[in-house]
Design a protein that fits this description.
heterodimer; A: about 180 residues; alpha+beta; RNA Cap, Translation Initiation Factor Eif4e; 7-stranded antiparallel beta sheet; 4 helices; about 30% strand; B: little secondary structure; two-stranded antiparallel ribbon; 2 strands; disordered C terminus
Chain lengths: ~180, ~90
Amino acid sequence: MTLALRTPWTVWGIHRPPSSKIVDYEKDLIKVASFDSVESFWNTYSYLNPPSTLPVVTDYQLFRSGVRPVWEDPENIKGGKWILRLKKGIVDQLWEDLVLAIIGGSIAGGTDDICGAVVSIRAAEDIISVWIKREDPLLIDSVKEEIYKALNQTPANLEMQYKSNSGQSSPRRFLI
Amino acid sequence: MDIPKQASRLNLSKTPTGNNFYGSTPGGTKIVYSRDQLLSLASSPLSHTPPKGLSHFPAAMSRSEHKPVELAQPGKEATKTNEDTTFEMDD
């Protein structure tokens, strides 16, 4: 008997050596694992390296199963994302708190309005983004508050930027 | 043989902040797990079995001692480059 999550989730990963360019982002995405219960989440999570230990230019993507972690996906294309740029050294705890809040259902009421989240390991900084399905100002604002609450942070010590997915036109889909 | 009754049931009704997210919808009950509840379940024996498809975890991402799939293209990194092509400049 396991404890079911509200919705199944899939973890993806992508890596490119810093000197190379990704030619086909979607093709290079690796579907790492899926889970639908609290226990199977921990199975997956505990076998994955913490983000801070990943080589530079690696991303983890956690998305609702069935949603590809690209802005063109029908679930993402009308939405946007909150972007958190982090100084080095703090990503692991913030990512864990965010992931627990997302799969636990305390962001966007655990509804489909939350599509997923990405953690991006780069040379000079780490970046977390939280992807929202709809560009409803009330939803965007409430998700922002929920992220701050989940991460135990305030706007004074952690800035967030919102970016719409609809403005995307570049084929380069790594944030950095 | 006293079996504690309450221990078998987790309180799924509260978030760490005390907000009550536990409610029902026409489709059934929607459960919210707080951070603390999720963390407390991390030590459950069922949370310790290797994940399905572990062998497909990319090497750079996997903590396991199993032999994971290499992230790099097969054969690409194994070949030792001749000295005269080592310093190929492409950017």
